[in-house]
Design brief:
There is one protein chain. This protein has one helix and no strands. The chain is mainly alpha-helical.
């Protein structure tokens, strides 16, 4: 379960970086 959440966070971070730069990681 934790691994899935971690992967999801990484995926979200990648999209955020591509969509708009300047958004720091908000996943904890």
């Amino acid at each position: 379960m934790l691994v899935i959440v971690y992967c999801f966070c990484e995926f979200k971070n990648k999209i955020n970086k591509i969509k708009k730069r300047g958004v720091s990681r908000r996943c904890s």
